[in-house]
Amino acid sequence: MDHYDLIVRNATIIDGTQAATAANTQVQSAAPNLLNIVAGLLKATTKAALNFHPGPPSYPGIGCTNFALYDGVDRFGVTCHHMALPVDSGAVILVRRFDVDPDETVFSLTGKCHAAIAELFFEVMALVEANAPLPTSAETWTRPAYRRDELNALCRVTPDMDPAEIRRRVRATAYPGAPGAYIELAGLRFEYGGDPLLPVPLETK
Hints:
Largest sheet: 6 strands, mixed
Order of helices and strands: EEEHEHEEHHHEE
């Protein structure tokens, strides 16, 4: 890998001035968010700045697994793409998809994404180490990246929502140790902290 400048988000930052071997490659922790990486750093890469996104091109941005479960998808996936601003808008390199189980939770779906990203990472890094050209996918992002305020809105439930809608939101936002679905009453906020797969009462089946 001759002077192959490479930034990999969610994995490592590799100093492209070094050969890609365990002995002389300098590795640092990647920034946790693309917006924390100075635009000039992206421009400084001569070959590639890559992101491994835990969602397919139809689910860019934050909360991709949350919105997928809310939408009731039966297939999901992960995407390797060139980094660009705005977030999750760069050209797609490869996409890998897998089935979503009927009883999938945010936790279990996130685990599937991490496993798929690991496989995709090694596949892409093998090309990088061989100085081979990166693939160009025919797939493109289908919408702007989901934003934090949209994810926050998904977490909110109100008394006028029907039970099915409340259950969709609970399933789509419940994650161990993280804020999930909530309701505000009398100026107080109550957060749901139970099973993400709520049993459906007989009267609503």
